[in-house]
Specification:
Elements lengths: L16 E6 L2 E6 L10 H16 L5 E5 L11 H5 L4 H19 L5 E5 L2 E3 L1 H7 L3 E5 L3 E3 L13 H9 L1 H10 L3 E2 H6 L5 E3 L4 H12 L4 H14 L4 H15 L3 H12 L9
Parallel strand pairs: 2-3, 3-4, 4-6, 5-7, 6-9
Antiparallel strand pairs: 1-2, 7-8
Length: 271
Amino acid sequence: TRPQRLDTGNQRTYETIKTDRQDAAFVITLNRPERRNAISTQVMDELVAAAAEAEADAAVRGIIITGGESYFSAGADLNDAQALSNGVEMIRYFQKWHRTCRALEENEKPVLAAVEGFCMTGGCELALACDLRIGSKSSSYAITSARIGTVAGAGGTQRLPRIVGPSKALEIMFDADPIGAEEAYRIGLINKLTEDGEALATSLAMVEHYATRAPLSHAFIKHTVYTGMQMDLVSSLDYEAFIAATIYHSEDRREGIGAFFEKRKANFKGK
């Protein structure tokens, strides 16, 4: 069935992105067609605000970021970078990038990137900060910094190797050329490969499925995975055990196990 658009009444309006509630999904669409969805500092601020808006809404069970039907994003807005005059301003600029990406990684909801067309450098780095990436067959991915004598500064040198492995990440960044969707899927850069025009629909279906699962589990899973990846194995296993013991006392756990034994659908509340 087609997802239902819901009128939330007090939903914020933005200038560089569009937001839309579709059933359990909060869809954020990059909306700078005149700049091929280049990510400016204003886009970053609005992405952070929209992610917080979605996180605060208990009815939202997943966030989807998309660039629309033709492309995801051409990358960072170079006009912003060109306007920076010294090292301090550059550091602040990249800190804003990092805050934006962390707003997605640290969000309690699953965050999906639905990619049609090209997903370049800063746009790719933004997608890497999402939990999952769904790409159409004509989508393409690149971190092109080596073409212009720079280094990816929005997390590409760190997130890409954690997803595809150091050697493959180096190959992608050394080449600075786009890779196609089939290769991106093969190496694990994207989680699902769809027909052209179906990335968003597939993402919406995934969120609807996630809506049948415990939201508290999703929040704790995200936190434990991302935090544990920064630890040694023994410490991360101890941390995992602590989190598992903590959530065991939640209402969602009692509801989930009760529903299992009673052979009924669970009614999770995120508590």
